[in-house]
Amino acid sequence: MLDERQNQRHPFYDSLLDAIPEAVTVVDRSGTVLNWNHAAEQLYGIAEEDIVGQPIAQFFQRASLMLLQVMDNGLPVYGVYHQPRPDKHVYINAVPVTDHHGELVGAISIEQDITDVVRLNDERFHQQDLGTGEEWQPIFDTANRDLKETLTFLEKLEALDPASSLLMVGENGVGKAILARFVHSEHRSGSFVSLDCRALTEGLLDIELFGQGASYFAQESTKKVGKLELAAEGTVYLRHIDKMPIVTQVKLAQAIRDGGFTTTDGKFTKLCCQVIASIDSLPDADSASVHGEPPSPPLDRELLYLFQQIAIPPLRERREDIPGICHFYLRLASKRLGMPTPTLKPEVTAAFAAYTWPGNLTEVQRTMERLVITGGEAPLGFSDIPAAMRPKTVKDVTDAAVPLGTLSEELERERIELAIAQTGGNKAKAARLLGISRGALYYKLRQYGIGD
Ligand SMILES: Nc1ncnc2c1ncn2[C@@H]1O[C@H](COP(=O)(O)OP(=O)(O)OP(=O)(O)O)[C@@H](O)[C@H]1O
User: Fold this and answer.
1) Where is the Sigma-54 factor interaction domain (predicted)?
2) Using a 6 Å CB cutoff, which residues line ligand 1?
């Protein structure tokens, strides 16, 4: 009788599963797929008849299978952001299933596809205009001595000689283009034209920069004005200048030195724009003499020395700024996405300060966006941040070496609370951990009303 009723239920269940807009997957204890609905077919492009009856691990990386993880842990997950494949982003609920005796018999997952949302957000951020001021200034509001000196020098230089050619030097994503925009918005009235020297072939880059006279073409209308002329009173930003063909580099050096250049139709064009170039790192000065060949990547020496170099350190060398930058990007992402700004537990702020951020600002921005999208009401802890950023030991956290006094009041308070917690309330040890005197700690405790 029971079997009969169960048999009757099957068509209802199948229709129910297909009516659900989320991807539903059911596996048995061994990980063999029992159900795979329409939405799952669409999300992963795998037909039901191909996957049902097969081990799910044949279709996905084992480590990325939340279903197997919940069976291993015996614990459900709800509303967790998950990336089952490099090109798929989902919110997932996954639950282990037990029989009447409490024996594990399998698991069910329900996944909501948010790939488009993530992609759209990414695009929005990539396209986003750098703005003209305040919004991104906190990135360069620094407590780092070297960067402070560099920025002071730049400010003086621009006040005295706003047309000087600059070379922004720094790892990928440190903010070279942002700083170039900042300089531009402060001192130039024309347009900001950006060219990536990796993206164009030798001849094309030359034409893009210096233009081409009408004599090369049949009609006058096909005459091409170069960016150096087009950006008059503005800025030409040359990204990855070390990838510029050497012939063009020599021509550019000559144009900067002569204050202008001759176009192919013989006209002398004055250089009215500011040239700002960027490079990830300076070529090794000795490499040419040591190996007897041009340094790789080749950068014309004459051109190099025509630029004032502005070095921007990677984030791991300005750790004292990291908490402020993370909070800035959290607020920026929340504002743009219309979502509440998540709060970070102090240990997370410290973990971020200790992390190396190889992708620099770009990585911070993406990480904070993700936290805004996935974060809930509660303050975010270690389990909410990418595994690679979690400290392996408590020492990693305390080694974050974020000096007090360089932090905002909010962060300073968090840092003190963390130190008190880590030292079991021992104020002398906490003061040592924080690198301040005991008296200063007592003052701060009173100031923030901690331990009242
Ligand atoms: N308006 C903005 N405010 C704050 N951050 C921004 C803004 N626009 C972009 N960013 C973030 O800063 C990151 C780094 O900026 P930028 O492109 O200036 O670095 P870069 O050093 O020039 O990088 P690359 O070496 O790739 O040329 C961007 O990838 C983006 O995540």
Assistant:
1) 165-373
2) 128, 130-131, 135-136, 139, 170, 172-178, 239, 278, 280, 361-362, 365
